[in-house]
Description:
Blueprint: H1 3-13, H2 15-29, E1 38-41, H3 48-55, E2 59-61, H4 70-77, E3 82-85, H5 93-99, E4 105-108, H6 118-124, E5 128-129, H7 136-151, H8 154-162, E6 182-186, H9 190-199, E7 206-210, H10 218-221, E8 223-225, H11 228-234, E9 237-240, H12 254-258, E10 265-268, H13 277-286, E11 291-294, E12 314-316, H14 325-344
Parallel strand pairs: 1-2, 1-3, 3-4, 4-5, 6-7, 6-9, 7-8, 9-10, 10-11, 11-12
Amino acid sequence: xxxxxxxxxxxxxxxxxxxxxxxxxxxxxxVNSGQRPVVLVTNKETPEKxxxxxxLKADVIFPKSHPATRExxxxxxxxxxxxxxxxxxxxxxxxxxxxxxxxxxxxxxSAGMDYVDVEEFRKRKFPLGYTPxxxxxxxxxxxxxxxxAAGRRYHEGQLAIDQSQWTGGPQWLLGQDIKGSTVGIIxxxxxxxxIAKRLKGFDIGQLLYTGRRxxxxxxxxxxxxxxxxxxxxxxxxxxxxxxxTNETRHMIxxxxxxxxxxxxxxxxxxxxxxxxxxxxxxxLKNGTIFAAxxxxxxxxxxPADDELLRLPNAVVIPHLGSATVQTRNNMAxxxxxxxxxxxxxTPMFSPYPY
Length: 354
């Protein structure tokens, strides 16, 4: 079994025990001369599991506004020892500057870090945590749901019902099969691998993936490394699970969409800006591809009058990939432990590897 697989099992099956253990370790090493540290949580709706974990060893404050304004967060940053950064507001050197010498640690409550100036944290050697792995299952489940909904034209069917156009018939609203299909995963990381495991139950014909180098886990998953062009040309379903970087921004565009089958379904559970959305709308309208299932779009939130939302072959949900009770509780607890450990000067449970 690979190291990544061991970590995943550890994180998902033994999380509660692990969190309690690490919390105890953090408590024993907290140095504050009898004075409790103060932690800012940037969103009042953060799960209580994480807040309660913080309150064991720190005083917790929130911005007065909901959602918080940036200026409010920046003003509070200089009054605290740590921050649990909940949401996708830019996290950069400005925050660290306003935090000053008192601020000792920050953890996001997310796996994606495209809104974080990681290079600034690296230069300053500032403790930064995040919460990967524990959301893999929830995001993979959402991805499979979008695959089915888009491929089987669920949104189009709902529109037909709403508009009293339920006509029926042997050729009405025919969708795409999953059994025997070729599935491509762009980015076989933790989420991509979890999607691949889910696909084993669908009797797909072939699993392809792209990446900078072969993944050791790929063999057990039955996945074949191919160039991106080949994946796009051969796949009936394409999943996007790469992080958003300068390199991946708009990697799916007019040119790459044109390489896909007209019967292909695109599923994006990563970040909206990986896809050139205007090019995607055009491809869906003119039949370049069959359909798309999107958990992420650009911008977020998407305006209600956006053209994407008027397309019958686009299934769009509002960034719900990790939105399950247990997943968000786990993310909040890990973020809390990261912050407490960083304040104490001990290794974080889940440090960002900058």
